[in-house]
Amino acid sequence: MGALPAAARAYIAGAVLAAALCAVPTVRDASAVPWGAVALLAGLCAVSERLPRCPLTMPVLLAGVFLLPPGAAGLVAVPGALLGRVGRRPVWVRRLWHAAQFSLAASAASYVHGLGTPPGAPPPPFPYALLPALAAALTLALVVTALDGGVLIAAEGRSPRAAWGAPLPGALVPPLLHGPTGLMTALLWHSAYGPVAALLVLLPMSVSSWVLDRCRRERAAHQATVRALVQAVDLKDRYTRGHSERVGRASVLIARELGITGDRLEAVRFAGTLHDVGKLGVPTRLLRKDGPLTPEERRVIELHPEFGHEMVRGIGFLGEARDAILHHHERLDGSGYPYGLIGHQIPEFARVVAVADAFDAMTSTRSYSRARPVPVALAELHRCSGSQFDPRMVAALSRALDRHGWCPASDRERSPEDIIPPSRNVPVDHRSPTGSPAAGFAHPGGPS
């Protein structure tokens, strides 16, 4: 404990001593303790702590709270805490602290659960078991949070409000979430089916939690992939800084109005966020060119949808987003690119992203144009609907903005060269392959 402040060392030593004192009655009256149940539950806690992302620790600990007297319930937590994974040093001090902390919390929760119930008696039948189980789960959460806050105050000098107030809501979730599983385990333990059936309750819960964890990790990996691609585009083309995220957000607003939900809604978000990923294949000198583009240079920049589609072709989770990346510069009248698709030949997500892209370009300040007010941008979209944009998508964006509003690009999202003083009159660049006014809200060297 040499690296810890003296106050923290004293606090941890006091917690360990208190946990040991709670266990004294159990050791003194060993004959009255169901040591087989203690050993089985403690072993399950230890195994759960050693397995990565295994969700059994809390329901097993709560089952011990509901089944055992206070001192024995406190012992259930000790092996798992001493064998658990610790990411920071000093490792053994932290393990000892967690053992004392959860032992005290389990003892207190078992005491609260046993109020009004004879020692060693089985839990009351359902639904009468719910109220004492809820009180015990809340006690466990409160004691853990109180002890955690105390060690943060002693070791790091945090204020009581920061140490206790902020973590409390989150600390209540795991015991309350896993309480029903622990209660079911305890009720079956004393049933005719015995401990084996009780432990089988934990199996489906473990499998389902493992599957949910895998889904969360996969989703996090998807989002990390998208963020990395967007950051790469933003670093290469300063004119799109923050643009991709806003187009993703506007695309979701439109999609929700169209009744798109679930995985398809997530695909719309990916489509809007990654619509310009193909700019990674465009020479930087063209993206940052301030003067007019030659026809050859414009043709190179107009390849960015195809570049983007090739880049994401093998990313399976993008789904329909891949077609949106390829076709978001198509126009209903067939004058767009890369393939000059007409009307409903253009994929639905591409029509969504086209509107979101143009809207954000018009409402964002850039080095060559000032942001237009949202009503002006919407009027421009309506004017070009039917020829350039799908009227359904424009109407959906209008309804969404009426309901949710819109926060355009802030100064924090712009580099210094992107901020235009209000007094400076910068003309809008209207250059585009078709001369459409809405298409002109783009980088002066090419399409946005």
Automatic annotation (TrEMBL):
Domain of life assignment: Bacteria
EC class name: hydrolase
Compositional bias (Basic and acidic residues): 407-417
Name under which the protein is recorded: HD-GYP domain-containing protein
Organism per entry: Streptomyces ehimensis
Transmembrane helix listed as a keyword: yes
HD-GYP domain location: 218-413
Gene3D superfamilies tied to this protein: Hypothetical protein af1432 (1.10.3210.10)
Keywords, ordered alphabetically: Hydrolase, Membrane, Transmembrane, Transmembrane helix
